Structure formats: C-alpha cells, structure tokens
C-alpha cells in the first residue's frame, strides 16, 4: 500500500514536471516574428520600422530607421532576440518613391512674414534695423531679413528666413556640441545621432508642397513647416535618433534616451525646442527629438530644472502664421 502510494506520488510529480516543461516551452521558446511584405514611402517621409511588424511574440526587436532623402530601394534590418537569447536578422525592403509634384500646387505667394514694424526713423545702416522690443523687453532686430531676438536667431511660424539663408549644414559649433552630447550619451548606453539636421529652403519647399498636395494646406500646416519657417534651415537644429528606438515620431516620447536628452541636452547648449504642453507658445506639438543650439547659458535657463520653458515664452514672442 505504502509502496503504491509512493509510486503514485512519483507519477504525479512526473506529470507536473512535464506540464511545467510544456508551459515553459510555449511561453518562452516558441516565438513569432512577421514583417509586412514590401513597403513604399514617399521621399522624406519619416519611417517608423515598428509600424511594419505584423506579429511578434516572445522576442525583443532592435531596428534602425532609414534615410528617405533619396529615392531608391533600401532595407530595414530587424534584429530579433528570442527569450532564450537566440539572435536572428530579418530584412524589410522599403522603396522610397520620389513623387514630388511637378508643381501642381501653385507656388505660394512668398509667405509674407509679419513685416517688422519700424518705429524708429533711424537711417538703415548695414542692413541693420533696430525695430522694436519683444513683450518681455528683448531687442528684436532684423538683419538681412533674418530676425534676432536678444541676439538669438529665430525661425518659427511668425518669423521666417529668406530663401537665400543657407549655412550649408549644421554649423561647426553645433556639430562640436552635438558630438560632445552624443559621446556622453554613449557612456550611459545610448547610441545617438543627428538623423535630420540642416534642410535648405528649397528642400523644405518641396517637402511642404508635397504634403499640401497630399493632405491639403490646413492639415500640412499642423505637422510641416512652411518654407522659410523651418528651424532646420538655421543650421542650429536637428532631430535625434537613438539606435533601437523609434525615430522622429511620437513613439520616441518617454523612452529612456528621450528622457536622457530632456535632462541633459542643456549641459551641451541644446534646448528641447518644442516642449510638452507648450504648443500654443511654440506653434508645434511636443517633439521629444528636436533640439536647437542656443549655448549653455541660455539652455540652462530654459531647462528650468526639467520643466522646459519655451524659447517663445522666454523671449516674449509669438509663433503664428499671419495667414
Ligand atoms: Zn526637427
């Protein structure tokens, strides 16, 4: 009797172990990873690789977005790591199509940036017009059609840059500061780079017209700057992408590298240009990836212990299209 009981107990234990084993296999070993077949996007569209994952179970996925500034066929590499640590690479073919309209949209009348009112009767010297002060008492100057508030170059929805303003890329000061910041990020485990930096007036014009053609002007204005109004034309701003994370889209918000940037960018002279909840000041939705160089001193002030103050609020200026 006792022996029979022991045998039964052993059998039950055995069955339990087999059951646990099967459960473990199902939960941790069996994995699924499916990608979309083939994808095509428009020139300069931002590509979110996460969007093309059709199904995934029991895996961690690492990927990098692609540069869509030139038409062609590219591959997004997805590195898949299973729960048991097995690594496998998958590739998704992405065709970047240049469907820039052959100016179907009548080129807009040169956007008429709020012409700065000249109150003084001083003669114009060296194209320099000291015109007025901002609502916070800072000097607003227009030099060769470029607006500076308290000496800070401004490109937003109120103030535009002339089509001829072209630094040809990020300035050397910005590049040096970015290198320093990315090196510091690397120390804490983030591989970052400036994915989208300088954009010329002409590039922005094509991009914007493309969007207007596709979605209409009202909608395009909510997510794309009009030519001359993009901060990317200044050579002082860029969008950051971190390896393994969503790139230039709202899925980057709240991620570890986004939080690191929000808390450290000021140490290198950069500001989170479009902070959360400041849309009515900046004219733009929260962009956790867009940084603008202003130098360490001002950056530290705008950082405001993590509660970022917008540049518009600080300087006492608006960011609104006049039409
Ligand atoms: Zn940007």
Can you walk me through this structure?
With 323 residues, the protein is an alpha+beta fold. Among the domains are: 32-97, Immunoglobulins (Immunoglobulin-like, Sandwich), CATH 2.60.40; 172-315, 2-Layer Sandwich (Muramoyl-pentapeptide Carboxypeptidase, domain 2). The chain is built from eight helices and 14 strands. The chain has helices at residues 2-29, 172-187, 201-215, 217-223, 256-264, 279-282, 296-303, 311-315, and strands at residues 32-35, 38-42, 53-57, 59-63, 72-82, 87-97, 128-133, 139-143, 146-149, 152-153, 192-196, 237-242, 270-274, 287-293. The protein has a four-stranded mixed sheet, with no helix packed on it. Mean pLDDT is 87; it is low at 102-125. The site of zinc ion has 3 residues, from loops.
List the helices and strands and how they pair.
Layout: H1 2-29, E1 32-35, E2 38-42, E3 53-57, E4 59-63, E5 72-82, E6 87-97, E7 128-133, E8 139-143, E9 146-149, E10 152-153, H2 172-187, E11 192-196, H3 201-215, H4 217-223, E12 237-242, H5 256-264, E13 270-274, H6 279-282, E14 287-293, H7 296-303, H8 311-315
Parallel strand pairs: 2-6
Antiparallel strand pairs: 1-3, 4-5, 5-6, 7-8, 8-9, 9-10, 11-12, 12-14, 13-14
This protein binds zinc ion.
Zinc ion is lined by residues 232, 239, 290.
